[in-house]
Design a protein that fits this description.
Chain lengths: 319, 746
């Protein structure tokens, strides 16, 4: 299995197998080289899994951001003319070079076979030139219509690593398989797709939750965070799950703020009611005092009336 | 005797003897075949030894093509030593290039495959349908030609075209037609298809009698002309619909291609010489064919009208870039070889994204203004000088792409930015003219078509930057445009916040804002001015909605979808996006029911009593359902059209269009990836759809009314959900005095 420790300059190395296998191997080689220093990647199939590389780097170092910015450089070629042109214009350097999905541009439909072959052999010469001072690894997969191209490439390189010679366990798949590039011509997976991919990664967690109501809350958490996908796309943090968790926090914060507002409003209402009660209590006390006064007044009046009646009935009483 | 002739350029064709043939519609009404010698030049680049060999080979060819070494500018690489080859005419050039390709490997050609119309128009300063003054010598030879109008004029004059319309009595993809209806001038002819030789004679006769400039033939590309040629061959009859009968019509093969995330199919094409053939069903225009828009596209881009009517505006934009390159003396490559400059993985992560589409706030909103950036992406390209060759290049006054910091050179005008300048200015002029124009004005439709054509060109000018085969494009330029676009939208949102507005939604180049007390256009003017000032782009008020409803996402009802909404502007007109009446796959019955309900809401919605409107909507729904169950809805109105996203045999599942395509294939009708297939929903069996274009008319009994009822109820629910109507409410309201329906079952 290729690794920076066993690859040398002056040799052409080929990783050959399915798109999934070559994608995983390319990712691992990019990560291993990038952790040691600079690496350059010539992207052939419009597929470069920035997020998976970022996850793999972050699992090993806190410097992942810096490494993505300074150690990994890349350029893309979509057609076989562009691949030939890119190889030609790339200077020889001591930096290891990886060429991903090298044959993809040569499989384009509508190209004359003679022209494809010419450009492929033109590219072989350039690959040899670039491998002079640093290791050069290519990844490639076969194609039903142009099988001859992979055969030619296998003959042109010095060492080949094939999918069948590697046990699946030795190919690291801890960070999710690289996808076949983005949609609508994008090279990396757009955030919306990445969001759904991350959600799928947690589907087993959801399934295993004990309570059904927890599953519903789990769904709500993800659903609400979707609102922030455009902002996440703009920020383009290399570790999408971080942005997703932040979006969930934001939505929870929003819910907390809403509840706090409700509580505050209710507290205010309680306070108002308490105030109203106090007012009423005071009113009651006042009224009671009034009643007492009136009662006393009444009693006095009664006493007076009684005395007056006694005087009238018993004039001797007064004396 | 030399004389002057005024008229319009109808078409330009290559000719081995004469160089080019220019067909002119004279001011006096004549149709003129004029000729002009026309030498063409191409260039070859290779290692010196190989170039020497190529030079020697060319010198041995006949007719002689003079060669010489020269230095020419390559857009990305700068000055290049190349071999200049001059051919006496375009046909000889093509033949020579074919021989060179057979003989030599690894030669790089420049200016070798430029379409003749573009080359001729660029060299002579004329364009399709240009009003020209031509000096004509003996043998109809052009001594000089000069355009008297400009492609950037708004109110240009066009000649009265002689048009012949041809239409079969039945859609040929549905059933074999019985006759052709031919209209020329005020006369109508019906040509029977029973006797093919007689038909060919009659058709050729009509062409001779009316000598049309334009044959507008429905299904002309996909059926009429291929059939006519086949019948002529079978009958051994010479048939030629060209005006120049010494040449054969040009045929191009059918094509399936991807554009903006969709797959499209373009039928094979028949281009005529000396006159135009246009098939409105094979037009590449969004929103239906318009002759005026095709002419406008041809005038401003330099492609022929027959090409402009069929191809996507992308080819027109490429033509504009080629013309600009020719003017600058920049080499035009045959294939794009340049790639992006190296960037860091982090820069890719930041740059590789599209426009921002915020999820809007779901529900009913009052007094909302829609603010739109005028041609946002083309404007960014122009104001930031974005072009393939300027992005990634520094310089004293370089500007930098937000977030990635990639430089954009400002010292020399970029090729794309230069092409866009007059285009945007014209679009702005036509938009202003339309705003103050009465819809009944005879110029209104002409200006509308012009505006549409320029809008399409604006769209593709951006999209083409990322297209892998765009000769001058560069993915870095494409990414820079979207990055700046995202930054401008966020800046506009921040400005709105600062001014106290609430942003309810924003979508790539437009924002929906609201503020208590802001109800008329005047209340938003200060905000517009501030966004203009701080972004450097023009933003316009699309209108103020009296009310606007953002619909929830079907998959996640807690959030909205940026392109699904409807609302009423304060002038009373409705704006609808993403609903059945706007979707091409909706059947007429559903779309018209939705429209009826929406118009009712627009007329009668009272925010004090919104449920009144809901109940009336339910009544309309019931009446439509009753008509369906009574079989009163014409069966044609139930036909659904869906696009095949791959060849029928490549489908693994049981998609509805694939089922219909397989049924059609069984009766010998082939449909291909990118084509739309028509079908109706039917009962039971393995397939629940029936292809509409199978022979015979389907029985109404086969129609699955329950499926259609479900589709209608889903459509109605989407409109009413914002008024608090639940699925259960809707179902119970519709079910009253009605039959049981299983809502949302399909």
């Amino acid at each position: 299995m290729f690794s920076p420790a066993n690859l040398t300059q002056g040799q052409l190395y080929l990783v050959c197998g399915s798109r999934r296998f070559t994608g995983l191997r390319l990712r691992d080689l990019v990560v291993e080289y990038a952790l040691r220093g600079a690496v350059r990647v010539l992207v052939g199939g419009n597929r470069f899994s920035v997020h998976e590389i970022a996850y793999a780097l972050a699992a090993q170092t806190g410097r992942y951001y810096d490494i993505l910015e300074n150690n990994i450089s890349l350029a893309r070629a979509e057609t076989c003319y562009q691949m030939a042109g890119l190889l030609k214009s790339t200077p020889v350097s001591a930096t290891p070079t990886l060429v991903s999905d090298f044959l993809c541009p040569f499989y384009e439909e509508g190209m004359a076979e003679k022209e494809v072959d010419e450009l492929l052999f033109e590219s072989f010469a350039e690959l040899r030139r670039l491998s002079k001072h640093a290791p050069l690894v290519l990844t490639a997969s076969g194609d039903e219509k142009r099988k001859r191209l992979l055969h030619a490439l296998e003959k042109a390189v010095d060492v080949t690593e094939r999918a069948e010679t590697i046990t699946p366990a030795s190919v690291s798949d801890r960070y999710g398989a690289p996808t076949n590039g983005g949609s609508m011509g994008h090279t990396k997976v757009p955030f919306t797709m990445q969001y759904h991919q991350e959600r799928r990664h947690f589907s087993e967690f959801r399934r295993a939750l004990l309570l059904h109501e927890d599953q519903l809350l789990f769904d709500a958490l993800w659903n609400r965070s979707e609102f922030h996908i455009p902002a996440a796309e703009k920020a383009a943090h290399p570790l999408p799950i971080g942005t997703i968790l932040l979006s969930m926090n934001l939505e929870q914060e929003k819910a907390i703020a809403r509840l706090e507002e409700k509580i505050k409003a209710q507290e205010k209402e309680i306070q108002r009611l308490q105030e109203e009660n106090k007012q009423k209590d005071r009113q009651i006390v006042y009224t009671n005092t009034e009643i007492d006064g009136l009662q006393r007044e009444m009693e006095r009046s009664l006493k007076q009336v009684r005395e007056e009646m006694l005087e009238m009935l018993y004039p001797a009483y007064a004396t | 005797m030399p004389h002057n002739l005024n008229g319009w350029v109808l078409s330009v064709e290559a000719d081995e003897e004469d160089g080019v043939v220019v067909w002119l519609i004279g001011e006096e009404g004549g149709r003129h075949r004029l000729v002009q010698p026309f030498k063409t030049v191409f260039y070859i680049e290779a290692e010196p030894e190989r170039l020497e060999d190529a030079c020697k080979f060319i010198s041995e060819q006949l007719p002689p093509c003079p060669t010489g070494y020269t230095v020419r500018q390559e857009l990305y690489r700068g000055p290049l030593q190349v071999l200049r080859v001059e051919a006496p005419n375009p046909i000889v050039q093509q033949r020579l290039i074919n021989r060179l390709k057979e003989q030599f490997n690894r030669l790089t050609y420049y200016n070798a495959s430029i379409p003749l119309s573009i080359r001729y128009f660029a060299e002579k300063g004329v364009f399709a349908m240009a009003y020209c003054r031509v000096q004509v010598g003996g043998m109809h030879r052009i001594m000089g030609i000069k355009a008297q109008d400009s492609p950037w004029e708004l109110g240009y004059q066009l000649p009265p075209l002689r048009q012949m319309t041809v239409e079969p009595d039945i859609d040929p993809s549905h059933a074999p037609p019985n006759c052709l209806r031919v209209t020329a001038g005020d006369t109508e002819h019906e040509l029977s298809l029973d006797d093919k030789p007689a038909l060919l004679g009659q058709f050729q006769g009509l062409l001779q009698t009316y000598d049309p400039d334009l044959i507008l033939a429905y299904w002309g590309d996909s059926w009429l002309f291929p059939s006519l040629f086949q019948w002529a061959q079978e009958a051994g009859i010479a048939f030629n619909p060209n005006r120049d009968v010494h040449k054969k019509p040009i045929t191009k093969e059918a094509l399936t291609f991807h554009s903006y995330g969709n797959i499209h199919y373009r039928a094979n094409q028949t281009h005529l010489i000396g006159r135009w053939h246009i098939d409105p069903h094979n037009a590449g225009m969004t929103g239906g064919f318009s002759l005026q828009a095709a002419i406008e596209l041809a005038r401003v881009t330099g492609v022929s009208v027959q090409t402009a009517a069929r191809n996507s505006p992308g080819s027109g934009f490429t033509a504009m870039q080629i013309q600009e390159a020719l003017k600058r003396g920049v080499l035009v490559p045959q294939q794009k070889r340049q790639t992006e400059r190296f960037k860091s993985a982090m820069q890719l992560n930041l740059a590789d994204a599209g426009g921002m589409n915020y999820r809007p706030l779901v529900g009913v909103h009052r007094h909302v203004a829609e603010l739109d950036f005028f041609s946002m992406y083309p404007s960014i390209m122009m104001t930031w000088n974005i072009s393939g060759e300027t992005v990634g290049v520094g310089g004293k006054s370089a500007r930098h792409v937000p977030q990635t910091g990639i430089p954009i050179a400002q010292d020399t005008p970029g090729l794309v930015a230069t092409v866009l300048r007059p285009l945007l200015a014209k679009r702005m002029r036509v938009k202003k003219a339309l705003a103050g124009m009465d819809k009944k004005d005879p110029l209104y439709d002409i200006y509308r078509s012009t505006a549409d054509a320029l809008k399409w060109l604006g769209y593709v000018s951006f999209g083409y930057q990322g297209f892998k085969n765009n000769l001058f494009g560069n993915i870095q330029a494409h990414e820079a445009i979207t990055a700046i676009g995202r930054e401008m939208l966020v800046t506009a949102k921040e400005i709105a916040f600062e001014a106290g507005f609430k942003v309810l939604g924003a979508n790539t180049d437009s924002l929906f804002v609201q503020k208590p007390g802001a109800v008329t256009a005047r209340d938003f003017q200060d905000l517009l001015a501030e966004i203009d000032r701080r972004t450097g782009l023009t933003i316009q008020l699309e209108g103020v909605f009296d009310w606007l409803i953002f619909l929830p996402s079907k998959l996640n009802p807690t959030t909205g979808v940026s392109n699904r909404y409807f609302g009423k502007f304060d002038d009373g007109h409705l704006k609808v996006r993403g609903l059945a009446q706007r979707r091409t796959d909706s059947c007429i019955w559903i779309a018209s029911a939705e429209k009826e309900i929406m118009e009712l809401i627009a007329r009668q919605l009272d925010f004090e009593h919104p449920m009144d409107c809901v109940f009336k909507s339910i009544q309309i729904t019931r009446s439509h359902l009753d008509r369906l169950y009574r079989e009163g809805v014409p069966i044609e109105n139930l036909v659904v059209r869906k696009r095949l996203t791959r060849e029928p045999h490549l489908y693994t599942g049981v998609s509805e269009p694939a089922q219909a395509a397989i049924q059609l294939a069984a009766v010998g009708k082939q449909v291909h990836s990118g084509q739309r297939v028509r079908f109706i929903y039917t009962h039971g069996g393995k397939s629940k759809v029936l292809a509409w274009d199978l022979p015979g008319k389907p029985d109404y009994k086969a129609v699955n009314k329950r499926t259609y009822a479900g589709l209608l109820l889903r459509t109605v629910y989407e409109m009413l959900v914002s008024f608090g109507v639940s699925e259960a409410d809707l179902l119970s309201l519709v079910q009253e005095n009605s039959r049981q329906l299983e809502l949302f079952r399909t």
